[in-house]
């Protein structure tokens, strides 16, 4: 769906997103600059070859493209922030970095897995016989 939308918001003359979109009487749209340069040489639509009788600024297309660019900027910002957080959280430990090792040991010692395992073992050893 995004590809279809991307194609609909793209000028067929310059192959970029519309800048100051203009819609012709034949309903095809182009960048204002591109179609103005085109009409210096020809007075027909580059797509359907119909005579160009009118050009109308398309604020709807401009607004749509502006919103897409804003969303893209927000996504890129989020991606950058996530990558920065990952870089901070996942730093490789150096050989002489004893603080990392002591942190790992303290986390392991606080873990309750050991006590859960021993309760489970005692339950099975009391109620089940190994053959």
TrEMBL record:
It comes from Chlamydotis macqueenii. Gene3D superfamilies: Zinc/RING finger domain, C3HC4 (zinc finger). Keywords: Metal-binding, Transferase, Ubl conjugation pathway, Zinc, Zinc-finger. Pfam families: zf-C3HC4_3. Residues 11-49 form the RING-type domain. GO terms for biological process: double-strand break repair; protein K48-linked ubiquitination; ubiquitin-dependent protein catabolic process. One of its GO terms (cellular component) is ubiquitin ligase complex. One of its GO terms (molecular function) is histone binding. Transmembrane segments: none annotated. This is E3 ubiquitin-protein ligase RNF8.
